[in-house]
Specification:
Helix 2 crosses helix 3 and helix 2 crosses helix 4. By secondary structure, the chain is mainly α.
Amino acid sequence: MIGRNIHEIRKIKGLTLSELAERAKISKSYLSNIERNLNQNPSIHIIIKIAVVLNVDLKALIVTDINVETQQYLDSEWIDFINELKESGVEKEHFHEYKTLIEFINWKNQNSNEKKY
């Protein structure tokens, strides 16, 4: 349970096993054993170190339903993103204009990638 939660959150955060182990100051093999549930009872000290690096509540690592915690984390990321948009002056009434711009940029990136091959 804890191992799966650490693994899922680590992936969401875009960290490799090595990066998380190094930042938490634990061995990569020990972290791997936790994630693979070979060590199902790591000390609270280790779990706290991992939670700090992942920037999550301790309960996010020990909760039995990771989907609830993951959804809350993702929702908070979207809320932060929306707040940044608002702070930069984006009004929701004009969002469709920005959406058109985003679609154009995506189209341009896809076409420029196709031309490289």
